[in-house]
Specification:
Blueprint (H helix, E strand, L loop, with lengths): L14 H15 L5 E5 L3 E3 L1 H10 L6 E6 L29 E9 L3 H8 L8 H13 L2 E3 L13 E2 L5 H6 L2 E4 L4 H16 L5 E4 L6 E4 L11
Parallel strand pairs: 3-5, 6-7
Antiparallel strand pairs: 1-4, 2-7, 3-4, 8-9
Length: 225
């Protein structure tokens, strides 16, 4: 395991600089990797769905995948914790971007992203900076989910254990709250139970008449615009 250290204060406003350091390391030391999954430390990754997704979209060059930032917190705020001044951001909206907890991208975007970072002024909001500003400057496509998506390559926030059907749908989920390590272990147990048929995902139709038990080994479908 490699631990990347950057000689800067470990502050929230330096997250964009830390991410730039990550891309610099990837370009110099790991540019031939097939895919990179960037996750926060409170994210649980469903490795089976991740592997299936990478196999399905292995030819998706110049693309990034994640959960779209449509929450109002991702619009420029002029006061409060997430505020940004008009001097630093004079516009009324941010470019399309992903939420920060998990983003997946192929090796083909590493160099153009790093080049864009070298010519894009830093801003404190990491997700807007690299999946919005730098991605747009680099000409990298952002993939959004369709309404028919069965499984999502992104995160959902869960305070309790995911249900078997949620485990089937998601590549990753955020485990907010106290005792993160314990929550991670409980997610691992729930995931292991689903894939070993100790728990089941049962889908009931809109009329509540018919039900279908999902086989954990059935292919997962992903839909994007």
């Amino acid at each position: 395991m490699d631990i990347i250290q950057i000689g800067i204060p470990d502050l929230y406003e330096n997250l964009s600089l830390k991410t730039t350091g990550l891309f610099n390391w990837l370009y110099r030391s790991c540019a031939k990797v097939d895919f990179v999954l960037k996750v926060d430390d409170d994210v649980y990754v469903n490795v089976r769905n991740l592997a299936h997704f990478v196999q399905t979209f292995h030819q998706s060059n110049q693309s990034m995948f994640g959960l779209s930032s449509l929450h109002p917190d991702f619009w420029p705020q002029r006061e409060g914790k997430w505020s940004i001044s008009f001097e630093d951001w004079p516009w009324n909206s941010y470019p399309p971007s992903y939420e920060g907890p998990v983003v997946l991208f192929p090796n083909s975007v590493i160099f153009p992203m790093l080049a864009a970072m070298q010519t894009t002024p830093l801003m404190p909001f990491e997700d807007v900076y690299y999946t919005g500003l730098c991605r747009e400057k680099a000409g990298i496509k952002i993939h959004l989910y369709t309404n028919s998506t069965i499984s999502r390559v992104g995160t959902t926030q869960m305070s309790s254990n995911p249900s078997p059907c949620e485990i089937r749908r998601f590549v990753a989920w955020v485990k907010h709250g106290f005792e993160t390590e314990k929550r991670m272990k409980s997610s691992h147990v729930a995931t292991d139970d689903f894939y070993h048929n100790r728990t089941r995902c049962i889908i009931i139709d809109a009329n509540g008449n018919n039900s279908k038990v999902i086989n954990p080994s059935d292919p997962v479908q992903f839909g994007f615009l």
